[in-house]
Amino acid sequence: MGAAVPRPSLEALRAAVREQPRVPMHRDGYRRAAVLIPLIPTDGDWDLLLTRRNSDLPHHRGQIAFPGGSVDEGEDCQMAALREAEEEIGLTPSRVEVLGCQDDIWTPSGFIISPVHGVVPANEDLHANPAEVARIFRVPLSYFADDRNVDIQRIEFEGKEREVYFYRYDGETIWGATALIIRNFLRIIGLLEQEKPPIQRQA
After folding, report:
1. Which of 69, 71, 81, 190 is most solvent-facing, going by the fewest CB within 10 Å?
2. What is the pTM of this model?
3. Among 34, 66, 35, which Cα is nearest to 50's?
4. Cα separation of the two ends of the chain
């Protein structure tokens, strides 16, 4: 796919997410987590907001991630994602237009992750919580939609081969669950070359 990727309208994003049936997941012994996929409108594109986790956190230390964390008792995935985004980057929940939730995915590290799509105003004042986040940065959606920017590696886990995606942007490596969530989002909104590729559910 070339670099000239048309920006989906907000209406198109709403419709694509609404029309994608959400598939929840249960795996014994796995912890539930939720992340917010913050979409920020820019001139002719959308930015995805990402964070680099602190290097001293107990899970996924130093990795690139969307704002998020464990789902507490009594919460659904949307509530957890918005709460965590407020704690980690100072994003006021009422400022987010939640579009919907993506299929759950699972990670070999023992998590089931529910991704939540949300539109964030371009002028939102955000700040990193130094206890959890080392850096906040943004990447154009068109960068991820250009397959010249992705390195796909095939890795075997528990006897099954799967694709693992790697993107490199502004000195950061985006891979694992975060890259998979981005790829699945691109599938949902129709920005991958393959017409109807399946949703991948193992990071």
Report:
1. 190
2. 0.90
3. 66
4. 23
Q: pLDDT (tens digit, 9 = 90+) per residue, 135-179?
A: 999 999 999 999 899 999 988 777 777 889 999 999 999 999 999
Q: Which two tokens mark 71?
A: 């789902």
**CATH code (residue 108):** 3.90.79.10
d(CA 164, CA 135): 24
19 located within any domain: yes
- 125 occurs within a structural domain: yes
> Is residue 50 in a domain?
yes
Counting the structural domains of the chain, the total is 1
**Among candidate residues 109, 101, 191, 187, the one with its CA nearest the CA of residue 146:** 191
What single-letter DSSP state applies at residue 15? Answer: H
Q: Would you state the torsion angle of the CA atoms of residues 7, 64, 53, 25, taken in this order, to the nearest 10 degrees?
A: 90
